[in-house]
Specification:
By secondary structure, the protein is an alpha+beta fold. Strand 2 and strand 3 form a beta hairpin. The chain is globular.
């Protein structure tokens, strides 16, 4: 069980799923997506009383940025971003219209760029890619507290 201040609650005590979704088509999606992620996690903490670490906010914004950047580079058309809190984590899901699945590349320190998927997979609790009837869905899950595994704390 989470340690918490008076008045806050754990996710198990929260009666409704906490989530947000947004559809995108324009050119400013990366910055808007990062802002949406930060605002959502701030609301999760302030309105819903769930613990969210500063590291979790940073990691979720990075994951959103990497996934949305990949969509803009490799998938035509619109995409959907969904953030949903469950099991003391936030699932970042991006759906797009491109049916080709991204392939993680083996680590190569000589390669310049194209490390986004490696970074996402290294930072997340779980990572999954699913082909959909139209396009694909990628979900990366980040812990709300201690996403980087730092046992020492502040």
């Amino acid at each position: 069980m989470l340690e918490r201040d008076e008045g806050s609650r754990t996710l198990a005590e929260y009666p409704v799923p906490v989530s947000v979704s947004a559809a995108f088509e324009g050119s400013e999606e990366i910055a808007v997506s990062r802002t949406l992620a930060r605002s959502f996690l701030t609301e999760v903490q302030t309105v819903h009383g769930l613990e969210v670490s500063a590291d979790a906010v940073d990691v979720v914004q990075l994951v959103v940025s990497e996934l949305v950047t990949n969509v803009r580079r490799h998938a035509p058309g619109p995409f959907l971003l969904t953030l949903k809190v469950h099991s003391q984590a936030v699932a970042v899901t991006v759906w797009d219209t491109e049916p080709d699945l991204p392939l993680p590349r083996p680590a190569d320190p000589a390669r310049v760029g194209q490390h986004g998927l490696e970074i996402v997979m290294a930072l997340c609790r779980s990572f999954a890619i699913h082909r959909e009837p139209v396009g694909k869905r990628i979900t990366a899950t980040v812990a709300l507290t201690d996403p980087l595994g730092d046992e020492t704390g502040p």
